[in-house]
Specification:
single chain; binds D-gluconic acid; 8-stranded parallel β-barrel; TIM Barrel; two-stranded parallel ribbon; alpha/beta; 14 helices
Length: 444
């Protein structure tokens, strides 16, 4: 009897050890000795495009959409006037020129253009058109995101992306914007961070509509992929020269204990749900058990948003309050709570490279209200990009998140990501020293 028990236990032990050794080998977690790296050795070609990124709901102000409704219902800090950008964008665009930028990524607010179903606001479209003209006059390439977490309340009330029947109205909105602006806008992101939108809104309940359902999360992930694929093919038909992609947030999941089989299994599951399932959708037109043929190869470039890695264990966070951000003892924690892990940027670049399309860094930045970490964060992450380009990765731009402090979703205004500090009482913008550093890197 005991012989049986001992042999089964040793077999299980051997299996676990084998599993751990396999994962450890296949998924290394590099940590550089940054003191040995000359961060000023970075270099970029003069064709490389330098930019910043913003999103309508976070900067424009006084919107009435799924987010303003959610802020009200959940008693969150209100986005309110945000950066009053809808009234100040001409001055804000001067800041883009002052930084020496050659690209600017921003999103269109669907709820401005179609506040009620079928009612279109042509003045709002004209305002976006004027923004495009102003950027072109400044020799700054516009990069337009069609959906950056926010949409009209009437569409949310129909279930938004939970219901496939709602996709046509999203496609119609995208089509109208494209017809109005694609004579001057070449580069388009259909959807910003589909995994963040679906997990924050339907698993953790921290984003609208505040659901906590794995079933709904999966449904939304698949419908986002369906919507993206449909929009991609429609817009390409209209203008084949347009370059259309997705802004994909690649967050890395590493086991807290690299010798724990449980931590490895949790990390691999989360990595697949967050990253792998999405990539399979784009590469194979299949995702989470669904066939989505319109998604296959539906990107002309990949927009990569990179921030950090999460160290995972058996706990399953149910809200960002409980989401304890573990870190390696030598790592620096950002004000958002998660660690700075610039080495992960290289891993994120490697993760999207099998898509075999050019990479545009559409977001990278750090919450840092006193600007004490952002200079180091900038240098380390840009050094990684410079090295990746030298090693043959086709990275064409870097858009820093963000031009200025803005409304950071469920965190409100306490997280400060801007190269420009914003005094939200006076709406005064003040260039931070990290903004000067960014500008000097661009100039060299
Ligand atoms: C996101 C969004 C941005 C955030 C930025 C900082 O990733 O949630 O694309 O809107 O503000 O990433 O968290």
């Amino acid at each position: 009897m005991w012989l049986w028990v001992i042999s089964i236990l040793s077999a299980l032990l051997a299996l676990n050890l084998g599993l751990v050794l396999f994962f450890r080998n296949r998924h290394p977690e590099p940590h550089y000795n940054w003191d040995d790296i000359d961060l000023d050795s970075m270099s970029f070609s003069n064709k490389f495009l330098w930019g910043t990124a913003t999103a309508a709901h976070q900067v424009e102000g006084n919107l009435s959409n799924n987010w303003s409704d959610f802020e009200e219902k959940k008693g969150l800090e209100k986005s309110g006037s945000a950066c009053d950008y809808w009234n100040r964008w001409k001055d804000d665009f001067q800041m883009l020129s002052d930084l020496g930028l050659s690209s600017y990524r921003f999103s269109i607010e669907w709820s401005r253009l179609e506040p009620e179903e079928g009612e279109w606001n042509s003045e709002a479209m004209d305002e976006y058109s004027a923004m495009i003209d102003n950027l072109i006059e400044r020799d700054i390439r516009p990069v337009v995101t069609l959906h950056h977490f926010s949409h009209p309340i009437w569409w949310e009330q129909k279930g938004g992306f939970t219901n496939q029947n709602n996709i046509p109205s999203f496609v119609n909105y995208c089509s109208r914007v494209f017809e109005a602006l694609s004579d001057r806008v070449e580069v388009w992101c259909t959807i910003n961070e589909p995994t963040v939108f679906s997990t924050m809104g339907y698993t953790l309940g921290q984003f609208p509509p505040g659901k906590r359902s794995i079933r709904l999360t999966m449904k939304v992930m698949k419908n986002l992929m369906r919507a993206h694929g449909t929009v991609y093919h429609l817009l390409k038909e209209k203008r084949p020269s347009a370059r259309i992609g997705v802004a994909k947030n690649v967050t890395l999941f590493d086991p807290l204990n690299r010798w724990s089989p449980i931590d490895w299994i949790v990390a691999r599951i989360l990595d697949y749900l967050w990253n792998g399932a999405w990539r399979k959708g784009i590469m194979k037109g299949k995702m989470l058990g669904a066939k989505i043929p319109q998604a296959k190869n539906s990107v002309d470039f990949i927009g990569l948003n990179y921030y950090t890695h999460f160290l995972t264990g058996l706990f399953m966070p149910t809200s960002t309050e409980e989401l304890e951000f573990a870190k390696r003892k030598h790592e620096i924690t950002t004000e958002f709570g998660y660690p700075m892990y610039a080495e992960g940027f290289q891993r994120a670049i490697e993760f999207v490279s099998p898509l075999s399309v050019p990479i545009e860094i559409t977001e990278n930045g750090v919450a840092d209200s006193d600007d004490s970490l952002r200079p180091l964060h900038l240098k380390r992450h840009l050094w990684i990009v410079s090295q990746a380009i030298k090693n043959g990765y086709d990275i064409q731009s870097y858009h820093h998140w963000s031009l200025m402090d803005n409304f950071e979703w469920a965190e409100g205004y306490k997280m400060r990501f801007g190269l420009y500090e914003v005094d939200f009482q006076t709406q005064e913008r003040t260039l931070r020293s990290s903004g000067e550093l960014f500008s000097s890197i661009i100039a060299h």
